[in-house]
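Checklist before submission:
- one chain only
- standard amino acids only
- sequence pasted in full

Submission:
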Amino acid sequence: MSAAEALPDGFPVGARFTVVGGAGAVGRLFAERLCGSGAEVTVVDLAPAAPPGTCPGIRYLQGDLGAVDERLAHELARADAVVLAVPELIAYESAGKLCELLGPRTLLVDTLSVKGPLVEAVRAAAPTRELVGLNPMFAPALGFEGRPVAAVGLNSGARSRQLLALVGRWGGRVVPVAAEAHDSLAAATQALPHAAVLALGLALPALGIDIVELASVAPPPFTTMLALLARISSGNPEVYWDIQWANPQAGQARTALADGLRTLSELVRNDDGAGFAEAQQRLRGYLGSELDRYTAHCAQLFTVRESTSTAHVPTGGNTDD
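Returned file contents:
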């Protein structure tokens, strides 16, 4: 443990953190970083045993928030902070009971992709409970370093501030936002692009072209889209379902996506090249000061793809890359 990563002064020496759902990817990310920062960490999960490679300093307790037994109740009551790394619905349904079990000064932390419903549930159950909602805007395997972590606070106090400082010491770029603003941003940055990629994947079979044939002539944009499709379709369905289902603003994002496609179709159907050019101009205006940065990023991305990719030669059977 480096001095830069040590627990801040807002927590006692050897502070007790309980990570519920800590055997999952997000929970494990937080559990291991907290352990490395000197906290006493207990992982609670439905799984019967800790996953391989778990930090040796982490205690493991099999437990279920939906059926809290005496051991789990004791663990929750003694914690200085409880981190919820569980599906959205479980967090919402257990919020009231959980607030009853926690000590009066215990910090409640969540890692949900939607914040509004949990904030309201906690506010109703325990109006003075200190809550900090963290949403790492990246896959856990990528790590915190240099990546944004959206942060929503309720009754923010010393422990909330110190936890955010700790995330910053891990390399995360903390971005404070209100709960409603967070869910709008999550709908635009997660639900909308995921929906676009999934829609592409659902549309491809209708073209009747074999994926190997498509991949053999794929230009960089399509190759990138296929990579995103592979990543999403290979991921945990529960994670991607929660992003679409749990966010009350995700439906609006999907509607906007469908409206955009209809607008494009109308321009083509009406042979409106001038309207298409005007639409492009509006898009450049929307990007504004970010236009040049993302143009350069795309060029770099495509250069990396082209220089590292190799031609895929069909072999007549499935192969692993």
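Reviewer check: The beta strands are 16-20, 40-45, 59-62, 81-84, 107-110, 131-136, 148-154, 173-176.
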